[in-house]
Design brief:
With 323 residues, this protein is of the alpha/beta class. The chain contains 10 helices and 10 strands. An 8-stranded parallel beta barrel has the order 3-4-5-6-7-8-9-10, surrounded by 4 helices. Strand 4, helix 2 and strand 5 form a beta-alpha-beta unit. Helix 1 packs parallel to helix 2, helix 2 packs across helix 3 and helix 3 packs across helix 4. The longest helix is centred in the N-terminal third of the chain and has 15 residues. Belongs to the aldo/keto reductase family. This is NADP-dependent oxidoreductase domain-containing protein. Keywords: Lipid metabolism, NADP, Oxidoreductase, Steroid metabolism.
């Protein structure tokens, strides 16, 4: 098995490759690097590519995908591409327009997966993070069930093959699942997940509802200053993880990624470094013992890198609940 072949079945009948390439990079990283890294990732064997309107790189990611189709490396149907509906577009009348805008930037006819980036609705407009004169975020009030209906229409229109959510807690997932007249269940919930925040309870809940959990920051986040406390622990320097990497003659990143695969989690790996991109696709070549899986489970401390404290007083702030 390799990055191209191992897929998880989604509840709508489509399949998702279990290893994805994450494309988020801080603003200071030149867009040309995103283009090159995405091409390298496809060359290395990644077939699942994850981006978002928020990342401001869909033009480059789309360009990379199209250039790899044009040079014969892949066909469009070999690629599983995910985009995300940003939170300033959660009003029903804005959902389809936002997806069409992403497709225009990508120069693609459809996305394989379109997900609500977060349940924290913010004021519509051009600003990604609308603020008042005191520098406080300006929130919006939307009915997430109505937003979901607009997502369902995007699937019916063929603009997205599958639809899902991100950063939703159990209560918010249940709200969608219990919606009267629900046409399609979310196929996934993409959340922060790594050995320090293993999301065991949310994972079990998602599995019970046939929803795939997709892990972002699986390597402990790139620690962008705007989002992450710089004093937070560095996952890939964890002594237990490093000792295990030595034991298996692998990198700590490979151990952290393989951990997720064996739990039935679809995992995103973000690196713009060619050597590490190639290493990250080699997680199909070895297996962790059940004892070592338990040891990694023991690293959990419910530690979240992306706490989104700036939105903590939003009524739909997802991280106040236990899970």
């Amino acid at each position: 098995m390799d990055a191209k072949g191992w897929c998880e079945k989604l509840n709508d009948g489509h399949v998702i490759p279990v290893l994805g390439f994450g494309t988020y990079a801080p603003e200071e990283v030149p867009k040309s690097e995103t283009l090159e890294a995405t091409k390298l990732a496809i060359d290395a064997g990644f077939r699942h590519i994850d981006s978002a309107h928020l990342y401001n790189n869909e033009k480059e990611v789309g360009q990379a995908i199209r250039s790899k189709i044009e040079d014969g490396t892949v066909k469009r149907e070999d690629i599983f591409y995910t985009s995300k509906l940003w939170t300033t577009f959660l009003r029903t009348e804005l959902v389809r327009k936002a997806l069409e805008n992403s497709l225009k930037n990508l120069q693609l006819d459809y996305v394989d997966l379109y997900i609500i980036h977060s349940p924290i609705a913010m004021k519509p407009g051009e600003e990604l993070f609308p603020e008042d004169e005191h520098g406080k975020l300006i929130f919006d009030t939307v009915d997430l069930c109505a937003t979901w209906e607009a997502m369902e229409k995007c699937k019916d229109a063929g603009l997205a093959k599958s639809i899902g959510v991100s950063n939703f807690n159990r209560r918010q997932l249940e709200m969608i699942l219990n919606k009267p007249g629900l046409k399609y269940k979310p196929v996934c919930n993409q959340v922060e997940c790594h050995p320090y925040l293993n999301q065991r309870k949310l994972l079990d809940f998602c599995k019970s509802k046939d929803i795939v959990l997709v892990a972002y920051s699986a390597l402990g986040s790139q620690r962008p200053k705007i989002w992450v406390d710089q004093s937070s622990p560095v996952l890939l320097e964890d002594p237990v993880l490093c000792a295990m990497a030595k034991k298996y003659q692998r990198t700590p990143a490979q151990i952290a990624l393989r951990y997720q695969l064996q739990r039935g989690v679809v995992v995103l790996a973000k690196s713009y470094n060619e050597k590490r991109i190639k290493e990250n696709v080699q997680i199909f070549e070895f297996q962790l013992t059940s004892e070592d899986m338990k040891i990694l489970d023991g690293l959990n401390q419910n530690f979240r890198y992306f706490q989104l404290k700036i939105a903590a007083d939003h009524p739909e702030y997802p991280f106040a609940d236990e899970y």
